[in-house]
Amino acid sequence: VQLQASGGGLAQTGGSLTLSCATSGFTFSRYAIGWYRQVPGKEREGVSCILIRDGSTWYGDSVKGRFAISKDTSKTTVYLQMDNLQPEDTAVYYCAARVSVGEHDTYASSYDYWGQGTEVTVSS
User: Fold this and answer.
1) Do the bridges between strand 118-123 and strand 113-114 make them parallel or antiparallel, or are there none, so unpaired?
2) pLDDT tens-digit profile of 93-120?
3) What is the pLDDT of residues 15-49, one digit of tens each?
């Protein structure tokens, strides 16, 4: 199982970035893919999640209305479109995978596989 996160970088306040999580080695449709973020000294925070089979999505309160998660089943890739970025969005972003049980589970400990992080920096 492999997950590779990419797309991080530097953005200005109000700007946009799109993160990608390319996956391989498992049956994509059976899984849920989540995005988490972490800043030094703080716990990993759930950002968004998508159930691949039905496309059901979940968003953390801090990103609702600004971020959008989507999937490309043919590429087994999940995207996180981040708009209206704010300095508080600065973090290392990780994607993770777990077998879907048909409902959202935002606990990081529920995820079995993690990609390497991609760093997002939003300048004020």
Assistant:
1) unpaired
2) 999 999 998 888 888 899 999 999 999 9
3) 999 999 999 999 999 999 999 999 999 999 999 99
Instruction: List Cβ neighbours of 66 (8 Å cut-off, separation of 6 or more).
Output: 82, 83, 84, 85
Residue entry with tokens 């999505």:
57
Q: CB–CB of 70/54 below 8 Å?
A: no
3-state secondary structure of 117: coil
Q: Nearest-CA neighbor of 82 among 59, 71, 66, 97? A: 66
DSSP string, 25-86: SS-GGGEEEEEEEE-TTS--EEEEEEETTT--EEE-TTTTTTEEEEEEGGGTEEEEEE-S--
Q: How far is CA 27 from the centre of its chain?
A: 18
- Contact at 8 Å (CB) between 20 and 76? no
Structure tokens at 83: 């708009």
